[in-house]
């Protein structure tokens, strides 16, 4: 595990804000998943009773399921502390600090 440089250490307030943001994103995904299950179960039950076939009810399951999967990836994979997003932000921060130091040295 790489050591953090002094400028990348978070203050307690920043840690609290980031933790709340990440927890909120996870709660949002769980709510999204619950609505997905409830709505698609209802559509599945209605499709047989009203239309005599369940084939059409797979379209919303698959389409919305893709959206739910992408939402999950953004929350659980890209939103983690060691995720791609965090590393990219850190690299950009370091690049900007180097540029700022170069400008001061001129």
| Helix-strand topology string | HHH
Distance between the termini: 35 Å
Helix content class: over 70%
Mean pLDDT: 81
Provide the low-confidence segments as ranges. 1-7
> Based on CA inertia axes, which overall geometry fits?
elongated
Strand content: under 5%
Query: What class do helices, strands and sheet pairing give?
Result: mainly alpha
Helix count equals 3
Number of strands: 0
- Main sheet characteristics: none
Radius of gyration: 22 Å
Structural account:
The chain has 106 residues and is mostly helical. It has a domain at 12-81. Helices cover 77% and strands 0% of the residues. It has three helices and no strands. α1 runs antiparallel to α2. The two termini are 35 Å apart. Residues 1-7 have low confidence and may be disordered.
Question: Could you provide a short overview of the structure?
Answer:
The chain has 106 residues and is an all-alpha fold.
Task: Give the arrangement of secondary structure elements.
Blueprint: H1 12-51, H2 58-77, H3 84-105
Helix pairs in contact: 1-2
Descriptive tags:
mainly alpha
């Amino acid at each position: 595990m790489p050591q953090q440089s002094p400028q990348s250490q978070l203050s307690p307030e920043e840690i609290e804000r980031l933790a709340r943001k990440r927890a909120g994103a996870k709660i949002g995904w769980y709510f999204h998943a619950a609505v997905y299950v409830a709505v698609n179960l209802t559509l599945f039950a209605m499709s047989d009773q009203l239309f005599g076939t369940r084939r059409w009810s797979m379209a919303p399951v698959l389409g919305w399921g893709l959206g739910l999967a992408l939402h999950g990836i953004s929350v659980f994979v890209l939103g983690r502390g060691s995720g791609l997003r965090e590393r990219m932000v850190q690299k950009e921060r370091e690049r900007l600090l180097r540029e700022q130091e170069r400008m001061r040295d001129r």
